Predict the structure.
Amino acid sequence: MDGISDDIGDGIANRIRAERTQRGWSLADLSKRSGVSKAMLSAIERKGTSPTAALLVRIASAFGMTLSSLIAQAELRGGGLLRAKDQPVWRDPETGYVRRHLSPASDMPLELIRIELPAGAKVSLPAASYAFIRQQIWLMEGRLEFAEGDIVHVMEAGDCLALGPPANCTFHAPGPAAAIYLVALMRGNQ
């Protein structure tokens, strides 16, 4: 996973600009809807900075999308088979969190995402990022402390959790090793 190219960053920047333009939104409009400053949005679109997971979630939510669908639309081409070498991989520059989109592009409402959260790292996502999806988390390796609103789930390898109604969430890999987990998400009201 160390061979992550700049192509996905460029693709994300281009996709954000395309989504904003399609809607006829200015940077100010997107800023108001996402809570991300105009300066930061401009830097992202110009490829002058690598956005964090938290920023991308806020931007995707403003578009009514999930982070995964934003990344998928930035990089995926159509087809029923998505080879491992072609799966988009994105690394959060702030936490080292690595997200691999496993699902081929399709009209299916199901997406599979593999996450590697480094030992000691925490990623917090707002409830808005869960508004249009239902998801389950299957912990493959390590330990994961997942805070779903006021409820904290301590997960061991092999545990699977179905998320409840949208809530602010925090993923924490307490260590000693990285937490590696699969997220299965269903878009829409399925």
The longest strand covers residues 133-141. Confidence is low (pLDDT under 50) at residues 1-5. The longest helix spans residues 7-22. The radius of gyration is 16 Å.
